[in-house]
Design a protein that fits this description.
The protein is mainly beta. The protein folds into 2 domains: 2-128 and 265-273, Diaminopimelate Epimerase, Chain A, domain 1 (Roll); 131-257, Diaminopimelate Epimerase, Chain A, domain 1, CATH 3.10.310.10. It has 3 helices and 18 strands. The protein has helices spanning 27-34, 82-94, 221-234; strands at residues 2-8, 11-17, 44-50, 66-72, 105-109, 112-119, 122-128, 131-140, 143-151, 155-160, 177-178, 188-194, 203-211, 215-217, 240-246, 249-255, 259-265, 267-273. Strands 5, 6, 7, 8, 9, 10, 11, 12, 13, 14, 15, 16 and 17 form a 13-stranded mixed β-sheet that branches. A 5-stranded mixed β-sheet has the order 4-3-2-1-18, sandwiched between helices. It catalyses: (2S,6S)-2,6-diaminopimelate = meso-2,6-diaminopimelate. The record marks 156, 211 as: Could be important to modulate the pK values of the two catalytic cysteine residues.
Length: 279
């Protein structure tokens, strides 16, 4: 079948066009496609399907034509992916499945309908305002770090490192241990450190992330939104703009009274055909 490869600040995806929902997208198929040695290699799969043709998107078909069926690299289903949504919109526009206009483009997801705006290389998506709801811990090696649980349509745990720890020195080759009672469906764990002031934004944060179902990734859009909300809260602000630097680049997050905008580059880098595995 045909595929496109794209990424947003290094968070990379295999994009599969399936407008009529004919593809049986099994966990095994997703994992095979995302395998970095035997497949195409990616942090996840974005299936492009009409909302009316997908059982989880049909109820949103009146608000958005297209449904983003996102799967993590291990084949598990995810509610939302911020960078994935930005790459998804880039694909819709460059393939002519959606028409550029001054209005925001709606996209249906498992977390509801998001809206997107495109300006040059930058794609911005408006998502729900992050909800900060609990204090929890993550264990990493011999470390136990306190963090804030955040809902951005999917679950996050944001752990600010004490000044004595180096963000770049964290070993994220193994998954952090968390309380499954707080996060029964798993969680993306973000580790943060303060950055130097950046003109035009209220806070600047450095971030690394271990994503459920994908291990450490170069970027996580919803994770950047969660980190921004926590950093703004810690700065005494309910709203504002944050610069979030991830290993794959820079994202800008604007938290408003009732939503959150995630902005950054979204690029398509390859197209081709792939032979699907039979088992």
């Amino acid at each position: 079948m045909e595929f496109t490869k794209g990424h947003g600040t290094g968070n990379d995806f295999v994009i599969l066009p399936d407008p009529d929902g004919a593809l049986d997208l099994t966990p095994g198929l997703v994992a095979a496609l995302c395998d970095r040695r035997r497949g195409l290699g990616a942090d996840g799969v974005l299936r492009v399907v009409r909302a009316a043709k997908h059982p989880e998107g049909a109820a949103l078909a009146g608000d958005a034509e297209w449904f983003m069926d996102y799967r993590n690299a291990d084949g598990s289903v995810a509610e939302m992916c911020g960078n994935g949504a930005r790459v998804f919109v880039r694909y819709l526009l460059e393939t002519g499945l959606a028409t550029p206009s001054g209005a925001a483009l709606p996209v249906a997801t498992r977390a509801g309908v998001v809206r997107a705006l495109v300006e040059g290389d930058t794609v911005s998506v408006e998502m729900r305002r992050p909800q900060l709801y609990d204090v929890a811990t993550a264990a990493l090696g011999g470390l136990t770090l306190s963090g804030t649980a955040v809902d951005v349509g999917n679950p996050h745990l944001v752990c600010a490192l004490p000044g004595s720890l180096d963000l770049a020195g964290l070993d994220l080759t193994r998954a952090p241990v968390f309380d499954t009672g707080v996060f029964p469906s798993g969680v993306n764990v973000e580790f943060t450190a303060p950055g130097d002031p950046v003109s035009g934004t209220d806070v600047h944060v450095l971030m690394r992330v271990y994503e459920r179902g994908s291990a450490e990734t170069l970027s996580c859009g919803t994770g950047a939104c969660a980190v921004a909300a926590v950093a703004l809260r810690d700065a005494g602000r309910d709203t504002g703009t944050a610069t979030v630097d991830v290993p794959g680049g820079r994202l800008t997050v604007t938290v408003t009274d009732d939503s959150c905008w995630l902005a950054g580059p979204a690029l398509l880098i390859a197209t081709g055909t792939v032979t699907l595995p039979t088992s």
